[in-house]
Amino acid sequence: MDLSTITYIVVGATFALYIGIAFWARAGTTGEFYVAGKGVHPVANGMATAADWMSAASFISMAGLIAFNGYGASVFLMGWTGGYVLLALLLAPYLRKFGKFTVPEFIGERYYSQTARLVAVICLILASVTYVIGQMKGIGVAFSRFLETTYEQGLYIGMGIVFIYAVLGGMKGITYTQIAQYVVLIFAYTIPAVFISMNLTGNPIPQLGLIGTMAASEPGAGMDMMAKLDQVVTDLGFGKYSEQVMGSKLNMFVYTLSLMIGTAGLPHVIIRFFTVPKVKDARSSAGWALVFIAILYTTAPAVGSMARLNLMNTIQPGAVGDVAGSLEYAKVPEWFKNWEKTGLLVFEDKNGDGRIQYYNDKNADMVKKAEGFGWKGNEMTKVDNDIMVLANPEIAGLPNWVIAIVVAGGLAAALSTAAGLLLAIASAVSHDVIKGMINPNISEKSELLASRLSMIGAIALAGYFGLHPPGFAAGTVAIAFGLAAASIFPALMMGIFNKKVNRSGAIWGMIAGIGITMLYVFQHKGIFFVPGTAFLGDMKPDWFFGISPNAFGAVGALVNFVVAIAVSKVTAAPPEHIQHLVEDIRVPKGAGAATDH
Amino acid sequence: MDTKAAQYWKANIRLVTSLLVIWFVVSYGFGIMLADPLNAIRIGGVGLGFWFAQQGSIYVFIVLIFFYAARMNALDREFDLHED
Predict the structure, then answer these.
(1) Domain region containing B45
(2) How large is the ipTM?
C-alpha cells in the first residue's frame, strides 16, 4: 500500500474516533459546556491538559528547534514544563476553589471591577486567537503534504472536525477527545524516537540513548553520542551542540522565565483545572499533566540531537575537505527529494561540483578552510526546523505506517490545542461578555445556546485567519506568551497572595505590563508585525540587555507587579467582602457548595 | 481572621517558598548559570549542566508538584480545613 492510502486510513480512523466521542459526550448544561460538569478524574484531566498544552509547535517544531539550537533550546524544554510548577503551587488549587467558569470572571470578582474583567477578556482573546492561527496553519500544512489535498481543503476538514465535537460537547466533548488525542500523539512521537535511538545508540529508550554511546554499526562506534555530534557539527563550523547558547546566558535566563510565567498564565490551560471535582484534585492533576507532558518533552532532546546527527551524516558521509566526503547530489535519498518539493529543504550547487557542501559560512575560520577545499558557500540554503520530526521516520528508513501515525499525531496535537483555545475564547464571549456584562439575567438555556454560537463564531474566525494569516500571526509566541506573562499571571497571583492589591492596582498593572511588552515586541518587529513600521528603527536589536522580544514577557510581568503594588498603596484598600473572598479561596474547606452557578 | 487559617496559610507559604527555591536552583541554577562548571561532571555521555537543562530539571519539577500535593493534603487535615 502506498503512503497516502495508509495515511488516509490511519488519519480517518482517528477522526472517526473523535467524532464518536463527540456524540457520546454531548453537553446538556452550561456547567458541562464550560467545565465538563466538574467531574473529570485528575489523571484524565492531566492527560487532557497535556494534549491541550502540546500544540503543533511542540509536536512538529520543537525537536527541530532543539536540533539546530542544541543546548540553547533548553529554554523551551525548561520554560514549557517549569510553568506547571507555578501553576500547581500558585494558581490552580485556588482558582478551583473559587469555583467559577472562566479566568476573566475571577479577575472581575476579585478586583470588583467590570473594567478589569474586560481587560482580561481582551488579553485572553488576543493571546488565544494568535495561538489558534498557528494550529490552523499546522492542520492545513499536514493535510497538503501527506494527504494530497490543498491547504484550504485541509483547513476546512480540520474546522469541520473541531466543529462537531466542540460545538456539541463543549468542554465535556473536548476533554474526552483530548484524552484520545493524547494517546495518538504520544505513540506517534515515541515510536520513531525508539527506533532511531535503537539504530544510533543501541538503546531503545531515547532518554538513555541521549546520554549513551554510538552503536557498533554506526560511525564512531563506542564514542559518546553527544561527543560524536559535537565533533560532527564543529568540524563544519557550526556551534558546539552541547554548549551553544541562545543569545546569551542572561537572555536564556529571562527567556525561560517568560515561558514559565506565560505557560502558567495561559487561560486555555488554566480552565482545564476548573474541570476536576476538588481542590486536592487540582493539585495532583497538575502533576499528572506534567508527567504526560514530560514523556514527550524528555524524548524531544533525543529526537533533536539524533535527527541532527543523522542529517549531518547523510550529507557529509566522509571526511570534511575530502572531495568524496561530500554527498553526491545524484545519490541523495528519496526523502531528500520529497522535502525539496515542499520547499522546506533547498539545495543550491554554488560551486557546480554536483556534491553537497553543508557548513556554517558565517564562521570566519570555517570560510577560510572551505575556500581551501574549493567550496563557494553553504549549499543547503534552507533546512526548515519542521522537517526534523516529519522527515525523521523517512531519514531513519522506517516503514510507511510509522509515517502515517506521525501525521495523525501532528493533527491530534493541532486539533486538541485548537479546541482548548476555541473553548477559552467562546466561554469568554458568552459567559464574561454576554452574561457578565450585557445580559446578566440570561436563562441557562439561552446561555448554552449563546456559548454554542460563540464557539461557531470562534471557529469561523480561526478558519478565516488560517486562510488569510494576518501579519501578527508570525509573532504567535511573542504575543501569546507575552500577554499571558505580562497581564494574566501577575493579576491572578496577586489576587490570591496579596490581599492589598485593589481594583486600580490590578488594572494599571495589567495595562503597564502589556504596554511595555508589546512596545518592545513591536519596536523589533513592526507595529502589529507590519514590516517597516518598527519605530526607533535605528536602535540596535535586542537593545535591552540583549534580551530578545520573545523573552520579554518576564520583564512585562515584573513591571505589572511593581505598578500594581505601587498603585494599590496610594489608593483605597479593597472592600471588606473582597478580603473575605481571598481568605475563603485560600482554604479548601467548603469548595463543593460553590460550584453551582 | 481566625488564627487556624492564618497558621495554615503561613505553613503553606513556607512550603511553597522552599519548593520554589528548588525549582529555581535546578533550572536557572544548574541548567543555566552553573551549567558550564557542572558540565565537568559527566552523566553518561553528557555534562551534568546540559543534562539538568534538557532532562533533570523536568524530572525534578514532577517530583516537586506531587510532593506539594501530598504535603498540602496533609496540612488540610492537620488544620481541619479539608473539603467535605
Answers:
(1) 3-78
(2) 0.97
C-alpha dihedral sign at B70, B74, B79, B82: positive
CATH superfamily of A3-259+275-304+397-471: Sodium/glucose cotransporter (1.20.1730.10)
| Residue B21 counted as domain residue | yes
Length of chain A: 597
Q: Does B68 touch chain A (CB under 8 A)?
A: yes
Using the beta-carbon criterion (under 8 Å), do B45 and A82 form an inter-chain contact? no
**Which residues, at least 6 apart from B24, have a Cβ–Cβ distance to it below 8 Å?**
none
- Mean pLDDT on A170-178: 92
Q: Classify residue B67: in a domain, yes or no.
A: yes
To probe the interface with A, which of B18, B54, B67 has the most A CB atoms within 10 Å? B54
Residue among B12, B19, B57 whose CB faces A82 most closely: B57
Q: Which amino acid is at A106?
A: F
Q: Calculate the dihedral angle through the C-alpha atoms of A23, A29, A33, A39, rounding to the nearest 10 degrees.
A: -90
The amino acid present at A45, given as its one-letter code, is N
Decide: A398 and A195 in contact? Cβ < 8 Å. Answer: yes
Instruction: Kindly identify which residue of chain B lies nearest to residue A301, measuring between CA atoms.
Output: B54
The model's pLDDT over A64-93, given as tens digits with 9 standing for 90+, comes to 889 999 999 999 999 999 999 999 999 999
pLDDT tens sequence across A106-142: 999 999 999 999 999 998 998 898 888 888 888 887 7
Question: B14 CB near a chain A CB, below 8 Å?
Answer: no
Report DSSP state, residue A58. Answer: I
Tell me what pLDDT residue A581 has. Answer: 94
Residue A490: name the closest of A553, A549, A544 by CA: A553
Identity of residue A429? V
User: How high is the mean pLDDT of chain B?
Assistant: 94
Which has the closest alpha carbon to A19: A151, A168, A139?
Answer: A168
C-alpha of A47 from chain center: 16
Residue B83 lies in a domain: no
Answer yes or no: do B62 and A294 touch at CB < 8 A.
yes
Q: Which of B46, B76, B80 sits opposite A226 (nearest CB)?
A: B46
What is the least distance, in Å, from the CA of B34 to any CA of chain A? 10
| A311-368 residue pLDDT tens | 998 899 888 888 888 999 999 988 888 888 878 889 999 998 999 999 999 999 999 9
Where are the alpha helices (H) located in A433-475, listed in sequence order?
444-467
Overall domain count for chain B: 1
Contacting residues of B for A286, CB less than 8 Å apart: 65, 69
Cβ <8 Å between B28 and A257: yes
Question: Domain extents for chain A?
Answer: 3-259+275-304+397-471, 310-394
**Chain A residue with the nearest C-alpha to that of B31:** A74
Contact indicator for A574, A567 with CB cutoff of 8 Å: no
Three cell numbers, residue A566? 505601587
HSE-CB at A481 with a 13 A cutoff on CA atoms is 27
Continuous segment of H or E residues that includes residue B8: helix B3-24
Rounded to the nearest angstrom, the minimum Cα separation between A97 and chain B is 10
Beta strands in A458-516 (DSSP E): none
